[in-house]
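Sample intake sheet
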Amino acid sequence: MRLPTGLSFIFAALVWTIGGLFIERENIPRDRSPSPFMETPRTGTPGFIGSIKEAQPKKVLPDISPGDPEISVQWGTSGDTSTGTAFPVSSGGFWLTARHVVDNCARVGIFSAQNSQGGFWVRKVYVHPNADIAVLQTSRTPPAIAIRPASKKLTVGQTGYHFGFPQGKPGDLLSELIGRRKLRKVGRNSFVEPAIAWAVKLQAPRLGAFGGISGGPVLDQKGQVVGVTVAGNIRRGRVIASPPKTINEFLQFISIRPDGTPSANVPTKTLNKGAFSVHGDYLRKNLSVAKVLCSAKRPSLN
């Protein structure tokens, strides 16, 4: 199934390069992400903050509650060729990404290098029925990243590191956990899922949009996955991610055993404010964070 230099893969990549993506108001290309979310603060609602300084760093993240603030995201697709991010979680060739990155694609591929037009096709796609996550299966088995056990509680104010390909190019974010949210997807596929909100503190490099980082991992200080990026709003400086519980339950449901290591064995000494982008470069170099291609037009069989 691997097509490192296949003409169909290269053609699909060139279609994306020429302009087969969504275009934002500033004429900046982005991936097929949902529209920026709209969040309505509730007076006196714990967890909704105007500044990250208001967070309580040592407060354990509460359990899911019906009263969690709700965020609405318009779900849709242009039907064009587009890109996102994915990362391996098993030595068996299984990867995590966002569902909206790969849903309804004619074919899904993974670039073999961040600056390459070649790559390999995904053999199978598993989509979560009620959450914005998906699993990809490939014959390639890059170093996998460990997932944080759902039993280990997250804390409000803890640091998160987001890695991926915003706008189709390497880019990373440093954020701090705000609290739980309910993410309501509206449109072609409608559902409500539990999610976690993160406040972006640093961008590397400075980004014009977050689109394209969807499907990328959110890592904690130990290099374990604590979320999959599924939505963002650059003006508000917010990123929304699926929580570890959703990830672990879905992998268990489709009988996949994650066996990665923290940061896929990339030293965690670079997981800090001054060097997190270096950490991201190592992950991308090892293909532990990769760019995903959604081919809107099925390649020729000839």
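Comment: The domain at 38-42+51-75+144-285 is CATH 2.40.10.10 (Thrombin, subunit H). The chain has four helices and 17 strands.
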